[in-house]
Design goal:
elongated, alpha/beta, 16% helix
Length: 282
Amino acid sequence: MLILSGDHIYKMDYSKMLDYHKEKNADCTIAMLEVPWEEASRFGLMLVNDDGSISEFEEKPKNPRSNKASMGVYIFTWEKLRAYLIADEAKEGSSNDFGHDVIPAMHEAGERMFAYQFDGYWKDVGTINSLWDANLDLLNPKVDLDLNDDSWRIYSKSPTAPPHYIGSAAKVENSMITEGCEIEGTIDFSVLFANVTVEEGAEVRYSIVMPGTVIKKGAVVQYAIVAENAVIEPGAVVGESPENMADINDWGVAVVGNGVTIGKGAKVAPKAMVDTDIGGAE
């Protein structure tokens, strides 16, 4: 039985993991990826023996002893999984969660549990920063996530829209521009989804702009995620470069919500999450 998480971005040949599961005669096999130590406390971690068996689990520890993170991809032997799911459902106070309940119960009972080493691209997009990172990773030639790989296609729903248009005064560098976009301003290291309009004199840098958004003349969107059908009025500023922050701890990705209007000359600070309209500055 293969169990997958829904908020991760990766490409994996599950048949190789299944072969490993059979080779180890495992009751549970967990896909594992080594993450940067500074991010390790965000994940469920494993301490792994030389033979690949899992000796200990740490669920998002403050002081991690391992950087071997669970990818949230599991293969179970069905008979074992069924027995533990039934037992967990009957357990009072259980959160009915694989990471918190089912897997620890299996480990405590001494079941055969192994970690499968994955060496490709993987990103947990459960936070704003990781979602921003994952989109911008598409622009990084050093990252192993190629949307143009004909040997392993990634399919998505495409809107019916005309080809994108880049005006004569526009400047576009290191970016992905999707169909239906109309670009007259400056775009740098950004991902624009379908039907986005960027008017002349507007700037979009290091940002993710979702479908249908309009960024008007003189507006600046930087280090931000802008959701669908938002309107950034003339002269508004969304986000800030970390280089301009006196204290880097005050910096973060700015977020503008679905359908929100940022008024003329208004400012959205780093880390802000705006889900209602902001009026124009006086």
